[in-house]
Write a structure and sequence with these properties.
Blueprint (H helix, E strand, L loop, with lengths): L37 H21 L3 H6 L1 H17 L5 E3 L9 H8 L6 E5 L24 H4 L15 H10 L5 E4 L13 H13 L6 E6 L7 H11 L4 E5 L14 H13 L3 E5 L9 H4 L4 H7 L4 E5 L22 H11 L7 E4 L3 H5 L3 H14 L5 E2 L11 H9 E3 L1 H7 L6 H10 L9 H7 L4 H9 L15 H9 L3
Parallel strand pairs: 2-3, 3-4, 4-5, 5-6, 6-7, 7-8, 8-9
Antiparallel strand pairs: 1-10
Length: about 500
Amino acid sequence: MAKNILDIHKDRDPEGERLPIRIDATSNGEFEPVPLEARNRAANKLAHEWVSENARRAGRSRRNFLVSACGAATTLLAVNHANAMASKRGAKFNLPPESALDTQAAMEALGGNEFIFDVQGHYVNPDGAWLSKSPDANRMFRFVQKECVQNTPADSIEHLQCLRAEEFIKDVFLDSDTDMMVLSFVPSSRDAEPVTIEEADATRRIVDAMEGDHRLMLHGRVNPNQPGDLEDMDRLAADFEISAWKTYTQWGPDGKGFFMTDDAGEAMIAKARKLGIRNIAIHKGLSFGPQSFEQSTCADIGEAARRHPDINFILYHSGFDLSTPEEAFTPGAGKAAGIDVLCQSLIDAGVAPNSNVYAELGSTWRFLMRDMDQAAHSLGKLIQYCGADNVLWGTDSIWYGSPQDQIQAMRAFEISEEFQERYGYAPMTKELKAKIFGLNAMVPYKISMAEAVKRASADALSARKHAYLERPNPGFATYGPKDRREFLTLKSLGG
């Protein structure tokens, strides 16, 4: 194993250069980073100014202020101001002005004790065999936080240690309020996985060894259009206690995807049923390109759900697509992509809300944080057509670093009364958010309330977190590509 080049206790951002709420262009590697709009840049600029001023007024260093709840509140208030100036009226972050300097007010708005179950997390093994398969592996993730790349040779891969298991645990379980996470997978050929099921299971066992009591659950990656994957489902089910199957309908070894309603999809569903693991997590939205665009939409989901009411279809990214800005849904309008396709598919198949189709928010919510009107429409439609019990929390971290800023933003998120009245959207109450954060996922993942309480309370990992919070040291960094050059670098290496 490469040496540990990043001390977990070393100050990550001593000068306070990074904001705790990250409105930026970072991608999860599945879409080209989208540059910020003028209002986003204005919000970040204003947040930096307000942070400096509020830190001075509070008699604190800039870094110390940023780590506090007031730092996050100040940033979100700046986002609100910039959105209001741009006439974004669909939603806002509900924070009182005093939260910028009053820690108690900030914690009331941004803190919480919900059970947070993140059903889409990722881990990349920095010591995996996949590195040997790429002659340019040393370039992989050179764009991770600067503490990892300083003083390392250009041909070194030591910077990948920023993604090791210990860092993953810090980002997810120490620097955020996440209680449980599902480790998922990225599309790849069978011999070039950035993390194998064995490596993911080893990471889970690291948490278990800390008496974390299975705070990590696993997916089993299956692409039925790839030779060997259907047959390997038996091994995954028998050896790794997987909780769901993960598939990419827009991916294939020849670049061509499949539908959940064609022979490949039906074969996977039948095998999942036979093995008794009836959760299928399907990447829908964030199209990989024109060749498989049709398979990336949710047009097939309603019919698949109607045919197989005993199977849970968990839609990663909820069908969200960057090519189609989210607006109000009009049944029969014939949208070609986006959440509207999911809504129409459910209507056409007669699949009622709160049935067997679940919408997951990984990368979707992270992107929507920069556009409050789209956020209101997206969440509003998903709650209305998938159901208040069937919207699931996911963050797609590690790509976006610690998921805490996504959690804080969701806690404060409020759809405007204007949009509620005009479009029939549900108010974002604390009760509804608690469902989204974790209670909803307990049903398909078969977690009892007693089990949830056990996993989120007095284990060794919790004790470690309490000690860590005496001197928290979040990095406020993101790991995914942030511009076209970094995105193309990652894609050229098979990311």
